[in-house]
Each structure stands twice: as structure tokens, then as C-alpha cells.
Amino acid sequence: MATPHINAEIGDFAETILMPGDPLRAQFIADTYLENVKRVCDVRGMYGFTGTYKGKPVSVMGHGMGIPSCSIYVHELIKDFGVKNIIRIGSCGAVHDDVKLMDVIIAMGASTDSKVNRIRFADHDFAAIADYHLLETAVNQARAQNVAVRVGNVFSADLFYSPEVGLFDKMEKLGILGVDMEAAGIYGVAAELGAKALTILTVSDHIKRGEKLSAEARQHSFNEMMNVALETAINL
What we know:
By secondary structure, this protein is an alpha/beta fold. Helix content is about 35%, strand content about 30%. It contains seven helices and ten strands. A five-stranded mixed barrel has the order 5-8-7-6-9.
């Protein structure tokens, strides 16, 4: 039955779902990569689709920007619709000097300035980490496709425009590869509800160097990330 934020029915979603932030990107993925596609939800314009990839069921749905937004959708997908595997696919800004534009990062862990995981863990620190099987499968699929990936820690920021001076230098010193706004929240929800989660990111800009991908380059690098994510989804 429908939830407050997802107007789908039980069985409308596959066990594995790919989640970009942008609902229009979800529609692009469904139209470009999936067959036998059905749109299963559209509340507040947050589109969700289910189809097949190489004959296997896969869903795709947007999750919006930031931890509060993605946490709502991931919670309802797992708790109310039986989704078992969440694969976030998105972009990130690099902060580490040897991370380049178009690099694909697989987030083994996700640091954050958000308090959401402390709230769910009695104000203790929670290690927001990816599911190992999803992580291993994604790395193996990337190698099979000759896609070079970086595996490590990312930082999920609550503020896109951070006023904190020197924060990016501290991230680089601690080995953080890139900055997104959702991974730590998704990992926390999945852990709380007994599901599995992974984040795969494409470096679209370098925060410290002021570099940005062109639209053409973004599309090429997105295709690499998508192929890794889709092959991961059907090889679990």
C-alpha cells in the first residue's frame, strides 16, 4: 500500500534499487538502460521506475538532496516495500589532491557532520559503512569493465555551502576522497532496518582546485558509473 511519500503498491519495486538524487536522472536511467519499464510512483515529482536489465528486475528512484530527504525514501522503500539492496549513484566533489575529475569513487565508509546517526545510536559514534558484499561485487564488476575505481571514505555534508574555514584541508589530511550529501544517512537507515547499502560516485568537480566537468564529460563518466552499478545490481 502507498506510504505518505511513495504512492506505489507492494511488489512494485525490485529487491535492488538504484537511487540518484535527481528524479529526472532516475527517469533517464529507466528510459536508457532498462526494458519493460513501468513508472510506479510520482509523489512530489519523485519518480520511481521498475524494469529489467539483462532480464533481471531492477528499480530506480530519485532520493532528493540531503540526508533528511534520502532517509525518508530509503526508510519507506525498505520497511514498506521490501527493498533489500540500495545502491546510491551520484556525483561528488573531490578534496584529495590525487583524486581527479571523472574518477569513480566507491564509498566504503561515510563520515558526516549530520547528527542523524548519533540520534539512532544513543548519541554514540556510528561507523557508517557500506555492505561488504555489495562493495566487493561493485569492485569486481568495475575491474571486469576496466573501470578504475577509488575505494575509501567520503564525507556527507549537511551544508552545500559550508562556512567552516579549513574543513576541506582537514578532510584531505584524513584521507577523505570526496564530498556528497547522502551516503552516511543511507548507510545508517539501511543498518537500522537490516538492509544493504552502497554508494558509487563520480567526481564532477574538485572543490579545492575549482575544476568542473563539462556536460559532455559528465555524461561519459556517468555511463561508466551506471554500468558498474547495473552489473552490481544483477550479480548479487
